[in-house]
Amino acid sequence: MNPSEPGPGPTTHFGFREVPAAAKAGLVRGVFTSVAGRYDRMNDLMSLGIHRLWKRYFVATSGVAKGDRVLDLAGGTGDIAALLHERVGASGEVVVGDINAAMLGVGRDRLTDRGLVRGLRWVQLNAEALPFADGSFDLVTIAFGLRNVTDQARALCEMHRVLKLGGRALVLEFSAVKPAWFRPLYDFHSFEVLPRLGRLVANDAESYRYLAESIRRHPPQEELERMMAEAGFERCDHRNLSAGICAIHSGYRV
Known about the structure:
By secondary structure, the chain is α/β, with parallel strands linked by helices. The chain has helices spanning 21-35, 39-47, 50-60, 79-88, 101-113, 152-162, 183-202, 205-217, 221-230, and strands at 11-14, 17-20, 69-73, 93-98, 120-124, 137-143, 163-174, 234-241, 246-252. It has a single domain (35-178, 211-252), classed as Rossmann fold (3-Layer(aba) Sandwich).
């Protein structure tokens, strides 16, 4: 049976397709293995560089402090980890976790080339079953990765579990665009421009078509806030960036 075709047992979405739930992690792994080497270049082209401002704001408002221990999930090519590393200092630690070995390799090599080695740890893992003890981290972040997780509710519960009391989880993710007039333009960019960029720059239109589709299948702001509350987080809220193109979600373990 083709793994992209639904079969017996539970299914989930992979972009606009329904696939066996057990197959999604492998399909996502294939997408990011394909784009790993050109991932950051494509992000710059797709967002005109704005993704870097989103990420800086995300970390700047995280409340992370010197000496904190942070888990950055879906840490990929290390953009968020590098920003966090500046803030936790020599006495802190940033653990970068990702399900994809190719993405981790790109990130580790890039940060090593910048001299960022001490206080960084790279772990290949599944966000739905984190290999850490309860109460291990002051902060858990995930940027543009939650929508690729098969069981998002389970991943949120795991994020809650590994936080210390008083710890905070932050989710930066593409979300539901708010102004109605802007949605047709955003859809054109997502479904017409992005796949063409993917074909020209990364020789991979299908992966970028999936990424655009995955954004549309991701829970909108209010639903994700509710999911975080159901996972046990308190003081849940969200803040829209760029008219809701993406949003920062926050919750605490208390």
